Amino acid sequence: MADLVFILCTVFLVCCPIHLLLLYIDSRLPSKKLSHVNTLLDRASSRLNHGTESGQIPGAHAAVLRIWLWRIWFHVDNIQLRIYLAHTWRQELLAWWRGRSGELEEIRNELRYYHRMLNVSLRVRYEKWLLLSLNRPAQRY
Asked: 111 burial class (0-12, 13-18, 19+ CB within 10 angstroms)?
């Protein structure tokens, strides 16, 4: 009985780290990170459209932000094409090993920076409006 418990414990202790390693690698694969990057891109695009339609972002600044977003979008499309060419887990591991996940991580960081710049643009525009509205003399009726 003790030998059976020893064998089961040994098998468990050998299989558990291997399983955790495979889960870690699976979470780092490019196809898993791509969905998060696409979500960030959609959110950035909708916020930029909302800001330009509501007039919170001036035209020239909105054009610069839109060109920046398009450049990121084209880069993601290029990476997405290379990721979807991988049909097996081995090919996807090879793409991870070649740095596709790192490229997606760089794009995700750039999108976070883009979101911060978009927030700053919206906040600066709001603060200018707020200062102008506070500096106006009160209307008396």
From this structure: buried
